[in-house]
Amino acid sequence: MRWLFQKPSNCRDWSPDQVVLPEARFDGDLVEITGIRDCRYRSTTDFTVTHRDQAFDLGQLERLDFFVEPFAEWRGPAHTFLSFGFEDGEQLAISVEVRRENGEEFSVLGGLTRQFELMYVVATERDLVGLRSVHRGNRVYRYPIRADVERIRKMMVAMLRRANGLRDRPEFYNTLSNTCTTNIVRHLNEVSDRRVPWWNPRVLFPGYSDRLAQALGLIDSPFSVETDRESFEVGEVVREAIDDPGFSRRIREGDEPQQSVG
């Protein structure tokens, strides 16, 4: 039971792609973010790590997408993350992940026994989506979200502030209560009138989180997640567009304007 007394730390021999913690500085509607990851992958183990700094105008936010990456034929295990879109076509993706040490691999048991720290990866879409779809070979589904622009803004600010907080107050990842999807749900609850408990089965098994999002009226599409899930899969276009400077635009070709709700 020694693990019960372990404390989280930001001072470890981290995997090269997770060494840099992002930081956001706010000035009115402007947010300047340092440490935006933009890796160039040749495979899952061969990649060039790059980061950039960029300023965003929160007044130009106009859309939000929810991504789901199932891990297995059984639909339950999955990774989820968000991407925030701006009027000029820029996208900023935020993914809540295990912060791995060099050579470390994730395990469910390790996630229950304080073996991994938590990290908010702030990155380009090409990094996060390309890694999963092209190099891991996993299916990735993109769901446009129906939401009030002000709530999208609050969601992004909340996630960036939490990323800032982890710089000074590291936390352990927990397989049940402190995951990619439970954190998205917590941020959703901060900006929504409708509460979603983190212990909802479709949160604990995030491969079903898209069904939950549709049940809550959040997915901006006439298609059913239940019967038409493949219409949201982006693998083919991601593979075609991975080297295109207009990557984010390409994977959205044919989208209808997103609807807002109050």
Report the count of strand segments.
10
Structural class assignment: alpha+beta
Strand order of the largest sheet: 9-8-7-6-10
Total number of helices: 8
List the secondary-structure elements in sequence, H or E.
EEEEEEEEHEHEHHHHHH
Helix content: 25-40%
Mean pLDDT: 94
- N-to-C span: 48 Å
Largest sheet: 5 strands, antiparallel
Map the helices and strands.
Layout: E1 23-27, E2 30-37, E3 40-41, E4 47-48, E5 51-57, E6 61-70, E7 78-86, E8 91-99, H1 108-112, E9 117-123, H2 125-135, E10 141-144, H3 149-168, H4 180-191, H5 201-204, H6 209-215, H7 235-241, H8 247-250
Helix pairs in contact: 3-4
Could you give a short description of this structure?
This protein has helices at residues 108-112, 125-135, 149-168, 180-191, 201-204, 209-215, 235-241, 247-250, and strands spanning 23-27, 30-37, 40-41, 47-48, 51-57, 61-70, 78-86, 91-99, 117-123, 141-144. β3 (40-41) and β4 (47-48) form a beta hairpin.
